[in-house]
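Data deposition worksheet. Section B asks for the primary sequence of the deposited chain exactly as it was used as input, without tags or linkers unless they were present during the calculation. Section C holds the resulting structure in token form. Section D is free text for depositor observations; keep each observation to a single sentence. Incomplete worksheets are returned to the depositor.
Section A, Depositor: J.P.
Section B:
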Amino acid sequence: MRLSIILLLLLSLRARADDRITFGDADSERRHDLLAEQSEVVTGGLGLPARRLLPLEPQTWEGGRLKFVMRVDPEKPNYATVRLWGSDASPDRLILFQGYVRDSTHRYSL
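Section C:
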């Protein structure tokens, strides 16, 4: 069985959206230095652009990966929000790895 997760968009850091990336939107992905491995661009729920993470061949616990850079405020708490489309039920997990802060940008990997 082929399992996947659709990522619609990373909405904001903190309540007032310091930065925002829209997965599946070429301009937004380029501005955030997105590196996408084993994924595809799709039209997601409500017609929004999205990225689907695909399983590796042969299948293992790992699947597709997304690496990107977000602007943050290094002096205040920052929050990341991910919107997932609920009809893609699966036992898979989405893991967010926090990279490092350099100046006022932060590297993330999904």
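Section D:
The chain has one domain: 5-109.
The chain is about 5% helix and 35% strand.
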